[in-house]
Amino acid sequence: MAVDHAEQAMFYRAALLLGLIRGERIVAWADAVLAADAAPPPAFVDLATCPPDDLTLMRQRLLLLASSRESEAVVHGLVGLIHRDLASGRRSLADTMTVLKQLRAFVAVTRDTNEQLKTLGVDMAMSPSGSPAHAEAEARVRAWLAQHDRDAVPFVG
Question: Domain residues for 17?
Fold first, then answer.
C-alpha cells in the first residue's frame, strides 16, 4: 500500500505529538524522500534540516506537507504504534492509557473510535487495581490494541 506524502506527514505530526516517535525518524524520512524523488516538495528541505529535538518546529514544518485532517488510516497507524510500544514493554499500560486519552483529545478520531477509547478508559479507571474486573478491563485494552498491530506498517514499516 502506497502512502502519499501528505498522509505520511500527518501521521508523523500526530506521532510526534503523542510521543510515539523521535524527530530523528522524521529527518530520515525527509532525507529518503529528497534522495528518491526527482522533484520533492520544497518543504522537505526545511524538514530535513530541522533539528530533530525541536519538536515544535518539526511539527510546524510537517504541517506544510500534511493533509488537513487525520485520515482513518493515520489514526489506525497511530494505534498500531501504541500497541507496539505496549507489547514491546517500551510503554506501561498506565502510560498507554495516557497516550490513548491524548489520542482522543488531540487527534481527529471517528465517533466510533472515540466511543471505544472512552469505554476502555472508563473501564480501566472504574475497576479497582488488582481486581478481576481490572484484569478483564486490561485484557480488553490489550485485545483492542492488538487488532491494530499491522496498521502502522504503511507508515513506519
Answer: 5-65
**Same domain assignment for residues 20 and 80:** no
The reply to whether 45 and 9 lie within a common domain is: yes
Of 65, 80, 103, the domain-final residue: 65
If we measure between CA atoms, which residue out of 13, 60, 5 comes closest to residue 37? Answer: 5
Region 60-74: mean pLDDT is 90
C-alpha cell at 37: 524523488
The model's pLDDT over 90-123, given as tens digits with 9 standing for 90+, comes to 999 999 999 999 999 999 999 999 999 999 999 9
**Hunting for cell 524523488 — which residue is that?**
37
Q: Is the pLDDT assigned to residue 87 strictly greater than 70?
A: yes
Grid cell locating 91: 510503554
